[in-house]
């Protein structure tokens, strides 16, 4: 029987999402054979379990994280997600300083230090060099929303070092033809853009929009308003950083309708920052439509969920699928994986179809 090698990953942005993912990997590692484990879409993907994922490099810009061992940095401020594994094993990985570029919004200076990013004053490392030296195969991008230049810098480092990119935030790389073409040309798999949660606001909104459409109910208007208290929501108070995020979330829902709504009839996006919510996200969703004989109906829904662990349940599958693609020597965007795990994939489709195609990909029936 072939012995599987660890999946060596690097992480850009050691924030709440990275913290949840890293703790989650350790949580599932302690289950051994997976019996009794809950919260995963797949325990085994082509022989790879969560225990096979190993973090070999990490990058951040915050002085409370840079230079610290990863097992300490994931609990450093301004991180505020729930603790999954308090007794994390010691890590030999030190968080390296990445370039700030456009990764920090200036409005954050108006808030307390324990809630904001505090840039380190050390010069940034050579990210491409660190990726190569660490033996990383896949880089997960968890940079803040609006970090266009920073994300493109890391994407370029992936291309120069032969490392795959899983782009978990809304800067369009996998769904941009030029960037996608560069990854395809070099034979490097890429997954993106803007990760879905396991059961979050977007996946729920998409499912209900598809339900209306499939059941013959005309959706007339809808909104999705979200509040939270982590750095993601604080960062997104700057409206200038939200363009791609709004496009990503809106297109994710519009793609499920036979006839997309007019722009004034759909509003999706972050609403406000509520510090005491910390990593808890609350979604307020309303859908107004007309059913049989034009009789009106509406849905009002409130969803409360821990934001960062919710994305970890998807990232852990995206990592293993990307590893499988590397073994199969598939380059460019992995369409089925992107469609199932991301809000803004290169090709939008229903979640049911995306899941079918993902299962075919995992089994080797599709490239």
User: Any idea what the radius of gyration is?
Assistant: 20 Å
How much of the residues is beta strand, in percent?
Answer: 15-25%
- Please summarize the sheet with the most strands: 7 strands, parallel
Q: How would you describe the shape?
A: globular
Structural write-up:
Helices cover 33% and strands 19% of the residues. The chain is built from eleven helices and eleven strands. The protein has helices at residues 16-29, 70-73, 127-134, 148-161, 177-185, 201-214, 231-235, 243-254, 307-327, 335-341, 351-363, and strands spanning 7-12, 53-60, 95-97, 138-141, 164-167, 189-191, 218-228, 266-273, 280-290, 296-306, 332-333. Strands 3-2-1-4-5-6-11 form a seven-stranded parallel beta sheet, with helices on both faces. Strands 8-7-9-10 form a four-stranded mixed beta sheet. Strand 2 (53-60), helix 2 and strand 3 (95-97) form a beta-alpha-beta unit. The model has no long low-confidence stretch (mean pLDDT 96).
